[in-house]
């Protein structure tokens, strides 16, 4: 299996040398790749390693790993990472927030993409008792594990490594498949095997619920998914950020991600999923922001505004799309947009600022801009009778008003998008 993987790697490597374009075609994560290693960076963004390439975040093309981590090349002719994890132990400031990579017999420690002095070192020196040629590794801080630990995987052998005492505890995770990579995301533990994954209990290795599941459905944004992908389940539970969200005047909610959207009708808890292409043909996919105003959905993509009249089916207004600058007085791309109960002001978030556009004015201009200190980037936002929800990655935050969003200096309570907006409990 290992040999086969190596031969496959070599063949792929040859293919890449032959043609960069070909490489992009080979390395399409939406085809269902088996990743070599997965770990989050300091900002919680997952890095998926495959061969000598790296996928950052949940969508986008692969880049060469050595562009971000140059030294990984120097000691390794095959150019792949066996395992990786993100050290997260606040009691241990020397290593806190470091990313560790394992290649054959060596371990590399990076802090903010810079290799730490003295690395790479032998695995046996830094993690005594842990074997070479690992398959996977994942951090496991207290109280998720009994002690601040790292869990290492090789074949069906599992090692709990105590970060403080360096004690190694060998475990048997009977119900779990052999992991080819593993990571901790939002306090949950995932073992990847092939292009599937299972969520497991880090103490016991138990897998609860219906696993394995497709890694693509949860951790990637694809234009197409496998034929047996359940669209509603996938879109409710995906950990990929939303592009946009809004609710129309009647209280129906629409949440957009990539090529798909979820809809919940007022007075009905059942979510429905559809492709954007089907319901909003002209827009096609990957919208930046959507708000609803006066019986219409204002859908913004790059520099253009698409205007749909709400109804079944939604109808695209003649003459649209029109340039965003002409219609709302602001250049794209924008991050999020929403209208609150005040009804005729669109609030637009772009580059750490929030702008107001009076929708009754002619021509419309974006003004009154106020900086937002709390977030580097906002994915989506919506405002309804319950107030303003600002969505960043897998979380959303409540604010009483747009003004309070701009004035806030500390994060309000974090809510989970999949659980609290879409009722996905796993
Ligand atoms: C990164 O790797 C590629 C292919 O493996 C190689 O052509 C390139 O020179 C490397 N770049 C650096 C900065 O080492
Ligand atoms: C898991 O790894 C062990 C070696 O540690 C191997 O004997 C076994 O066949 C592997 N299982 C699968 C399903 O690949
Ligand atoms: C809610 O929506 C589902 C799915 O479209 C439908 O089958 C059901 O009849 C609706 N229920 C109500 C109360 O409207």
TrEMBL record:
CDD domains linked: HX
Signal sequence, renumbered to the chain: 1-19
Transmembrane segments: none
Keyword field: Disulfide bond, Glycoprotein, Heme, Iron, Metal-binding, Repeat, Secreted, Signal, Transport
Record localization: Secreted
Highest taxon, organism lineage: Eukaryota
Gene Ontology biological-process entries: cellular response to estrogen stimulus; intracellular iron ion homeostasis
Function comment: Binds heme and transports it to the liver for breakdown and iron recovery, after which the free hemopexin returns to the circulation.
Protein name stated in the entry: Hemopexin
Protein's organism: Seriola lalandi dorsalis
Phylogenetic classification of the source organism: Eukaryota, Metazoa, Chordata, Craniata, Vertebrata
């Amino acid at each position: 299996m290992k040999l086969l993987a190596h031969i496959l790697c070599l063949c792929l490597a040859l293919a890449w040398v032959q043609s960069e374009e070909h490489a992009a075609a080979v390395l399409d994560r939406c085809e269902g790749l088996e990743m070599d290693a997965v770990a989050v960076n300091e900002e919680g963004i997952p890095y998926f390693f495959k061969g000598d390439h790296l996928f950052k975040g949940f969508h986008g093309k692969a880049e060469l790993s050595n562009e971000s981590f140059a030294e990984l090349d120097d000691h390794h002719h095959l150019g792949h990472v066996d395992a990786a994890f993100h050290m997260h132990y606040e009691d241990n400031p020397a290593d806190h927030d470091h990313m560790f990579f394992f290649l054959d017999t060596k371990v590399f420690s990076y802090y903010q993409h810079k290799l730490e002095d003295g690395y790479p070192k032998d695995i046996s020196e830094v993690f005594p008792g842990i074997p070479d040629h690992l398959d996977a590794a994942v951090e496991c801080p207290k109280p998720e594990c009994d002690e601040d630990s790292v869990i290492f995987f090789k074949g069906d052998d599992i090692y709990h490594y105590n970060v403080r005492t360096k004690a190694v505890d060998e475990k048997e995770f009977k119900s779990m498949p052999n992991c080819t990579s593993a990571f901790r995301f939002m306090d949950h533990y995932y073992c990847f095997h092939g292009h599937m994954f299972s969520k497991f209990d880090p103490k016991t290795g138990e897998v609860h619920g219906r696993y394995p599941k497709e890694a693509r459905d949860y951790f990637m944004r694809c234009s197409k998914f496998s034929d047996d992908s359940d669209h509603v389940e996938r879109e409710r539970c995906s950990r990929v950020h939303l592009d946009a969200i809004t609710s129309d005047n009647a209280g129906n909610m629409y949440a957009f991600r990539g090529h798909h959207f979820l809809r919940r009708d007022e007075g009905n808890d059942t979510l429905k999923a559809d492709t954007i292409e089907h319901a909003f043909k002209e827009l096609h996919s990957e919208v930046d922001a959507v708000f609803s105003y006066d019986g219409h959905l204002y859908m913004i993509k790059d520099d253009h505004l698409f205007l749909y009249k709400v109804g079944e089916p939604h109808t695209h207004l003649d003459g649209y799309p029109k340039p965003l600058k002409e219609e709302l007085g602001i250049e794209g791309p924008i991050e999020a947009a929403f209208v609150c109960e005040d009804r005729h002001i669109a609030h637009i978030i772009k580059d750490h600022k929030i702008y107001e556009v009076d929708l009754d004015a002619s021509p419309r201009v974006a003004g009154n801009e106020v900086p937002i200190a709390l977030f580097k980037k906002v994915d989506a936002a919506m405002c309804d009778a319950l107030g303003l929800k600002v969505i960043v990655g897998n979380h959303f935050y409540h604010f009483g008003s747009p003004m309070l969003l701009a004035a806030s200096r500390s994060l309000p309570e974090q809510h989970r998008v999949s659980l609290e907006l879409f009722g996905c409990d796993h």
